[in-house]
Amino acid sequence: MALDGKVAVVTGGAQGLGRGFAEVLLKNRAKVSLFDVDEVSGNTTKCVLEKEFGPDQILFCQCDVTSEEQFKDAFQRTVQKFGGINIVCNNAGISNETDWEKTVAVNLNGVIRGTYLALNHMKKENGGRGGVIINIASLAGIGPLPASPVYTASKHGVMGFCRAMAMASDAAGYGVRINVMCPAYVRTALLSAASSPECSGDFYSIKHMNKKSVEIFGIMEVSDVVKAFESLVLDESQNGTAVIVDTHGFYNFKFPSTEDILPRNTTE
Question: Mean pLDDT over residues 176-180, rounded?
Fold first, then answer.
């Protein structure tokens, strides 16, 4: 997909991975609408990016992805300014085992809501242009983090949802590719907050189990994940793909085949 003139939405776009995704899209001459609940950070990021890429390329919409009304309005404002949508990255996420309902609301419900709203504007049967949706899961969507069970559950949910939706989009002829990214540990505010007593809750006493995982996989910079994101946006052959990103690079995760999970005939 050539990105020149395309229109992208990035949730959680004010900082961290979301800001990195927005920057690489802008460098490829796309127009970007940043959605973020943090109005101060969002406006700051918008001003910085406007200086480099121009005011006509950027829109900021304060948006809580747990709010249907705010999310829907942000999509509508984007379409009104740029004329349509080609790329959506549902990136907003938190890690909070204490307020576990909010973690599910942001990480899983927000991705589902964002995907459905995106499809309303993008799918060809509605007069959309087609395009690509990339949802951000985590390595925790493949293997468990013992001290973060709700975060793990939310990211497993994102994985399952994206796989099914990719197949549904293909079968229905929406013209929209749906993929999922599974980064390991990235040097962001979320990584720092996840191990705090406030966010760990009852699992703070076993935080060393998550820490051991960090030691095994290492910590990436935002730029490492951005490279994988850019590749997944540009590669039109990828649909229903889960890309793992770690300190060694990025690669497609191989899901078990149907034969691997079907029950076996047994003989006594």
Answer: 98
Q: What are the structure tokens assigned to 130, written together?
A: 């087609």
Structure tokens at 145: 């983090």
Which whole-number Å values give the CA distances from 15 to 6, 8, 99, 221, in the listed order? Answer: 22, 16, 22, 13
pLDDT tens readout for residues 181-227: 999 999 998 888 888 888 898 898 998 888 888 888 999 999 999 99
Say which of 151, 174, 185, 204 is annotated catalytic: 151
Which pLDDT score is estimated for 266? 56
Does the active-site annotation cover 151?
yes
How many Å apart are CA 137 and CA 111, to the nearest integer? 9
Q: What is the pLDDT of residues 58-88, one digit of tens each?
A: 999 999 999 999 999 999 999 999 999 999 9
> Residue 235 has which token pair?
């590669």
Residue with tokens 């590719």: 177
Distance from the first to the final alpha carbon of the chain: 55
Q: Please count the other Cβ atoms lying within 10 Å of the Cβ belonging to residue 71.
A: 22
Name the pTM for this structure: 0.94
Q: Letter for the amino acid at 190? A: L
Model pLDDT, residue 80: 98
Whether 44 contacts 115, CB under 8 Å? no
> Residues 6 or more apart from 51 whose CB is under 8 A from it?
none
Between the alpha carbon of residue 58 and those of residues 10, 47, 79, 94, 141, the distances in Å are 11, 9, 13, 24, 31
Joined tokens for residue 167: 């197949």
> Helix 68-82 to helix 110-122 angle, to the nearest 10 degrees?
30
The phi and psi torsions of 73 (rounded to 5 degrees) equal -65, -40
